[in-house]
Amino acid sequence: MKKDILILGPSPFNPNINHAGGQLSAITNLLKYIDQHNISYEILDTFRSTFPPPTLKDKIVEGFRRYKELKKILEVSTYSGALVFGTSGLGYWEKLLFSLTIEKKGIKTLFFVRSGHFMESVIKQKFKVPLKKYLMNKISYIGYQGGKWKEFYISVGVEEHKLVKILNWIEIQEYTKEFTSDKVTFLYVGWMVEKKGIIELIDVILEHRDLDNYEFIFIGGGTLLDEYRAKIETLGITNIQLKGWMNSKDITSFYEKADALILPSHAEGFPNVILEALNYKLPVISTDVGGVAESVIDNSNGFLFEPKDKKRLYENIKKIGSSLALREEFSKNSEDILKRNHSIDINCKKIFDLF
Fold this sequence. Notes:
The protein has 13 helices and 12 strands. The protein has helices at 22-36, 56-76, 90-104, 116-124, 129-136, 149-155, 198-207, 225-235, 248-257, 272-279, 310-321, 324-341, 344-353; strands at residues 2-9, 41-45, 78-86, 109-113, 141-144, 163-165, 185-189, 215-219, 240-244, 260-263, 284-287, 302-305.
């Protein structure tokens, strides 16, 4: 059976997915494009829950099961192309093996690593770089999300002609953002874990009492949630709200209420929360990681700073919090950048043009 594309990534049809990650959001929006253009497809579901983290044995068993499923799929169907979403760690090697297996069938494959922690792991584990470079150069295309990704891939030896820039995509909504001079609200959406920069952000809020006039809302579960809930309660802090995990529908009202998004992550590919913030016309304060600088332009629609730089983080919060005119200017620029960079039609078309 001939189909247009094989997709390897978390399936929106999986009833066991209890949180929407970046890959899932990308595939959900990709399927909207596919349906609109009558493209035939198949999804090999590669969802794996990360909280609580699975054991190494579980990962290996699940990876082997999926590999056998892929082999069966390739025996009965052929495709014009394949899109494989990759991650870091063992998941990277699994998806790389899958991509090479698909290529052996003569199917051009776009291997799209979207985890910022992949950069970290390659840089730290230098002895693995030649092997990764050699194997990745056997794949037809390597997708990247702008920002620091291209420089990174070239620096580790991936052939430049294989690199394809495809920015993250989202269904752009019609939305009018209105700011007021009332209490300014900063929003964080993501996992409450150390690598997301949560410790630095909450430290800044607690260390600078002039930020008491601002409201900080954190949405997301994770290993630090209970610890910080207890700490905030003990200290009697009233301008920090830790909401825990919420589904995407419940988060909507917080995006509408927010005056700006803060993302202090130590590493990212291109976080989906940036797209969501732009879709609500929000200014963004973010670390300059992964592909973020492609769509958060320093001093245009937000501010960029280096991971763990608490001084710059504090200064950026004050700049946005103290100026209604700046928030309105940045909001308009976020809208412009969203439309220019992140249209479904523009970015998804690039994928199918490859095949």
